[in-house]
Design a protein that fits this description.
Layout: E1 2-6, H1 10-21, E2 25-29, E3 41-44, H2 46-54, H3 58-64, E4 70-75, E5 81-86, H4 88-94, E6 99-102, H5 103-114, E7 119-120, E8 125-131, E9 134-139, E10 144-147, E11 149-152, H6 159-165, E12 172-184, E13 194-200, E14 203-210, E15 214-222, H7 234-241, H8 247-255, E16 262-268, E17 276-277, E18 280-282, H9 297-314, H10 319-348, H11 353-365, H12 369-379
Parallel strand pairs: 1-2, 1-11, 2-7, 4-13, 11-18
Antiparallel strand pairs: 3-6, 4-5, 8-9, 9-10, 12-15, 12-16, 13-14, 14-15, 17-18
Helix pairs in contact: 1-5, 1-9, 2-9, 4-12, 9-10
Length: about 375
């Protein structure tokens, strides 16, 4: 059985590894010539780590992951702790720790595991179609490849999604811009083993540990979409936006390197349930483009990859049937995550400041149990549970 995967992001690579493990011949095609991961890091919660463990990557992902033992919210202006708690109950219930990881390092590890000789870079797909039991993909250079099925893991701006649905879906602006990157761990900013978030004014400044003594940081700033900004202005913008925030946040801003900082306008796509068309199926952001507000974007793609391989391995009524079963298993869960993240963005980013203030007030009374219950509701229910 030959699989064509369009897209060499986290989802496409995990799918390639998973499908190889069930004996399929897999080739991955990626439009860019030089892979530069979008975003500095990602939070791999227990469900995502379990998927990588299932793919035989337990030791590799553990080596890349940060030691995140606890979680805290601090009032942004004063720096006072609103709530802080140990994450052990989450890990013990889920059966696996979370691992914040540097995205470039995770992607490089996945490429090595899949085999770089079978990842074809600089190959922009322009058209896909099916004839009988064969699916075809044409690339910008005119070459055509064929296989038994095709997986569209080509991201938020997916060409394959438009083929499957017969239309281009609009992306909805989430209402804020995210600045992110990596800095050396500095315990005058936050403890080295804690995910720490400063909140005020509908804004967030956050750090979490990744490997090799680094923090992944992000700043969320509500602002209109389409505001042009030169990279050299990032620090000045953050200093202005977070001028009233506590000294640890000012030290974090001082520590960032603008040339290594990402600025991302956050969008999502309203969930849809049609992920397949014949022998073509969607996976990852192509199927469920979400905002990062519940930290499950990468985990969703990893769950997709495992669920896809299990469906193709265990259902024997044909490829099209197996792909529909994959879709029906994944679309409701992924769609709910997209909507949860959307609701979370509205609650935390001051779109209605009364709602955000109610969230702030609740954090002062929080012992961690409600937040951990929310984390577990996202983690549980995946293809390996």
């Amino acid at each position: 059985m030959k699989a064509i995967i369009i897209g060499a992001g986290m989802g496409g690579l995990c799918a390639g590894i998973a499908l190889r493990r069930i004996g399929h011949n897999v080739e991955i095609y990626e439009r860019v010539r030089d892979i530069r991961p979008v975003g500095a890091a990602l939070s791999l919660w227990s469900n995502g780590v379990k998927c990588l463990n299932y793919l035989g990557l337990e030791q590799q992902v553990r080596a890349l992951g940060g030691q995140m033992d606890s979680m805290a919210y601090l009032e942004g202006h004063s720096g006072q702790t609103m709530t802080a708690f140990d994450l052990s109950p989450v890990y013990n219930t889920a059966g696996q720790r979370a691992y914040p990881v540097a995205r470039a390092e995770l992607q490089s590890m996945l490429m090595d595991e899949f085999g770089r000789d079978n990842i074809h870079l600089g190959r922009a797909v322009t058209e896909v179609w099916q004839e009988g039991d064969t699916v075809f993909a044409r690339f910008a250079d005119g070459e055509i490849v064929s296989g038994d099925y095709l997986i569209g893991a080509d991201g938020a701006h997916s060409i394959i999604r438009s083929h499957v649905l017969g239309e281009v879906l609009p992306r909805d602006y989430a209402g804020y811009v995210n600045f992110n990157g990596l800095v050396a761990i500095d315990e005058t900013i936050a403890p080295a083993d804690r995910w720490t978030t400063f909140v005020a004014e509908g804004k967030r400044a956050s750090v979490m540990p990744v490997s090799e003594g680094r923090f992944y940081f992000f700043f969320d700033v509500p602002m209109p979409a389409g505001v042009a900004m030169d990279r050299s202005a990032y620090k000045d913008e953050l200093r202005q936006q977070f001028a009233k925030f506590a000294p640890p946040v000012q030290r974090l801003i001082d520590a960032i390197e603008p040339e290594r900082t990402n600025r991302v306008e956050i969008f999502d796509i309203t969930p849809f349930n049609t992920w397949t068309k014949g022998r073509i199926a969607l996976l990852g952001d192509a199927a469920h483009n979400t905002s990062p507000d519940i930290g499950q974007g990468g985990c969703m793609a990893m769950e997709d990859a495992v669920a896809l391989a299990i469906s193709l391995q265990t259902n024997t009524l044909g490829v099209e049937d197996a792909l529909v079963r994959y879709q029906n298993r994944r679309a409701p869960r992924a769609g709910e995550w997209v909507l949860r993240a959307r609701r979370r963005a509205a609650e935390t980013h001051g779109f209605d400041m009364a709602v955000t203030q109610q969230w702030y007030d609740g954090l002062w009374k929080e012992d961690g149990s409600r937040i951990m219950k929310g984390l577990l509701s996202n983690i549980e229910g995946g293809p390996l549970d």
